[in-house]
Amino acid sequence: MASPAVTSFSPVRDVCDYELLFDCVHCGLCAEACPTYIVTRCEMDSPRGRIYLMKSIAEGRIELDDDAARHLDLCLGCRGCETACPSGVHYGRLIEGARSFVERNHRRSLVDRLKRRAVSAIFPYPNRLRMLLAPLKLVDRLGLTAALRTIAPRTIRDWLDLLPSLEGRERPLASESTVAPRADAPTVVVHHGCVAQVLANSENLNSERILAAAGYRVVQLEPTACCGALDLHSGNAARARDFARANVRALKKSGADAIVSAASGCSVAIEEYADLLKDEPDFVEDARAISSRVRDLSSLLLDAPANPKREFRGRVTYHDACHLVHGLGVRDAPRKLLASIPGVTIVEMTESDLCCGSAGSYNLTEPAMARELARRKADNIVATGADYVVLANPGCEFQIAAELRRRGSNIKVVHLADFLAMASR
User: Fold this and answer.
1) Taking the CB of residue 169, how many other CB atoms lie within 10 A of it?
2) What angle do CA 73, 74, 77 make, to 5 degrees?
3) What does the CA dihedral 124, 107, 399, 402 come to, rounded to 10 degrees?
4) Residue 345 falls within a domain, yes or no?
5) Full domain range(s) for residue 33
6) Is residue 157 part of a domain?
7) CA 339: distance to chain centroid?
8) More exposed terminus of the chain, fewer Cβ within 10 Å: N or C?
9) pLDDT tens figures, 58-69
10) Are 72 and 50 in contact, with CB atoms under 8 Å apart?
11) Contacts 24+ apart (CB under 8 A), 276-284
12) Last residue of one domain, picked from the residues 70, 105, 140
């Protein structure tokens, strides 16, 4: 009997790194780690389904229509599938490539285009964001926030709900360290990010002061450019590379032994500069060196020359920020650090590493799915009976705090750096 004919395909469109698609063996173990699949139960909203979709578009077997673009847009880029995958599929690289292809080749609705352009034009630039928020600070001081929400369109109301308090976030909670580090102590630089330095700068400042108190020599990075994560997630790879080059130059000049960010998404973006700039001879070696120096705050503190602690009583649950746990593989260190504080009781939550729906600017561009995931996360947090939920990413903090406020919950949402500062006072 003759063997059946084998149909072979080759890429006719530059959707993503085509060869990486073949690492997926379509086992489906990623599905239950995927937040959008858990919610929709639609195969094309799973990592396996999206990989099949990317391959089909690349090979010209289907067109990039509204439906195909919708399934790709709905991905959070949380990379939970990478942790679950036994084959080591680089899904993050695939979805970033596919999104870049979508941005180049698909025309969105007018409203969608305006939302995305607003995020792209403002969020990576701290001075622009400060200018935008200045009137909101005045409205808040005059007690007119409720009135503004009443007259604002639904999209604007949703965005306003995500904003933290605009007062007091630019000052540290910890006092200045009076202990001079040893001359041979390791040096650390804290990348202040773009949104974080405007809406949650206490997390940057507290990271620096806690590291200094632990015996590290903290050096400053001036100026700080956006890490590029927002652009990578939204398909603007060209500007992401521009930001990466600027950061590679500045981080190299700092001479720091370790690079930390209070935003886990920024940490992963910097850690992947080696891949992002791999085709640029003038930057690739420096990018590799910078990528190798990315560390997590909790890991550095556990390895610190000194680690002073004071008693702080409270029940704490920990939320795993997606890029910290799935991108950098950091899961145990924050828990060990919190458990080492006298008086702190750790209470594990269900689905601690399932995305909360923040995902960079996802909660601004995909509010319905983001809100559904926020509700699921808040349900699990409330079930713990904790006083505090601690996390390592400001975006997660804003997203979860907004949902808990809607419920009238008294649970406090605190970044790890701010919590450590509170516990050390």
Assistant:
1) 18
2) 85
3) 110
4) yes
5) 18-105
6) no
7) 24
8) N
9) 999 999 999 999
10) yes
11) 276/228, 276/232, 276/237, 276/240, 276/241, 276/244, 277/241, 277/244, 277/245, 277/248, 280/241, 280/245, 283/244, 283/245, 283/248
12) 105
